[in-house]
Design a protein that fits this description.
This protein is of the alpha+beta class. The chain contains nine helices and nine strands.
Length: 322
């Protein structure tokens, strides 16, 4: 999507130079008003005093990864991103924004996975402001943010209000990201099963997806946040579990699956051991067994090898057939 953000190209003056001009103007006001005593010059001094006070509103200071959206009586004039201390036209409305990365921990929400199981899923993401024009004018961020009064002058009240203003705007953006991340998380979670017990073998799941699921989340979030000029740098699932109402049942199912898998390994190993024992007995001519005795031996060995408890040996003191 094409951006309308442009760099501010209006008049800018070094702030320290303008402070010097301010001091000179103050001295001129004092000389005109208090030294001459002429009424006409006093009017000029009064006018200079008004200009001197208005000029204070033109000062601004920017740190790295900060920006000012310059608005002149409702018209966008560009975005100021140069760091330092400057003076601009005092009638510009200088909306301060932060371009620094911010964390957001999305609380776990209950959704249904691909096969309909209710699950709890949450994520953590890192986002930042990318396009100042879209952030300020494409979404209603200024209404969402709590309004802060901008005072004219260099008082401490102005500093506090400016700080609360940028904080309220960034909180509004964070609220927008939070709502959109909730929607994106529901969309991605509904496309995959929780694990491979319900889906097809080899199918991508929320538990096994890892980086692929996180990339899907990041892509969906950036698609939703593009209109707001916001960018997700990283997104990853940090909480994944069955909903409480089915957690106990799913735990028993997982335990049953684990038991079945263990039994399969035990039986497979037992059969291999029995086959090896019979081949060894036959190869070394230890004893000759007919088919009935082989069947009985196989049965006894499988019972011993597959039993949960240790077998109780019975010593046969007779012959092989008694």
């Amino acid at each position: 999507m094409e951006t309308k953000e442009v760099n501010f190209s209006g008049l800018r003056v070094n702030g320290f130079l303008m402070l010097l001009v301010h001091v000179i103007m103050l001295m001129a006001v004092i000389v005109v008003c208090f030294k001459t005593g002429v009424d006409a010059l006093c009017l000029l001094g009064l006018l200079l005093t008004v200009v001197w006070l208005v000029m204070f509103a033109g000062y601004m200071q920017l740190e790295p990864n900060e920006a000012r959206v310059m608005v002149f009586f409702g018209k966008y004039k560009g975005t100021f991103k140069d760091t330092g201390f400057f003076w601009v036209n005092p009638f510009y409305n200088k909306k301060k924004l932060s371009l620094r990365a911010r964390n957001l921990n999305v609380e776990p929400i209950k959704v249904n996975d691909k096969v309909g199981n209710p699950i709890l899923i949450g994520m953590v993401l890192v986002w930042k402001l990318k396009d100042t024009y879209k952030a300020m004018f494409e979404i209603d961020s200024q209404t969402m943010a709590s309004t802060a009064t901008t005072a004219v002058g260099g008082s401490a009240t102005f500093t506090i209000n400016a700080s609360s203003s940028v904080a309220s705007r960034m909180n509004a953006f964070e609220n927008f990201v939070n709502i959109q991340s909730d929607a994106a998380l529901r969309q991605v979670a509904g496309q995959y099963a929780y694990d491979d017990n319900e889906g097809e073998a080899g199918e991508l799941t929320l538990r096994s997806g890892g980086d692929e699921i996180n990339e899907q989340l990041e892509q969906k979030l950036n698609e939703r946040l593009l209109m707001a000029g916001l960018e997700v740098v990283e997104a990853r699932i940090n909480n994944l579990a069955y909903a409480p109402e089915i957690a106990a049942v799913m735990l028993r199912r997982q335990q049953a699956s684990a038991i079945i898998g263990a039994r399969e390994k035990i039986v497979e190993g037992a059969v291999s051991m029995v086959h090896m024992a019979l081949d060894k007995l036959d190869k070394d001519n230890v004893v000759e067994l007919d088919e009935d005795k082989k069947a009985a031996m196989v049965s006894n060995l499988l019972v011993v090898l597959c039993a949960d408890e240790s077998a109780q040996p019975v010593v046969n003191t007779g012959t092989l057939y008694n």
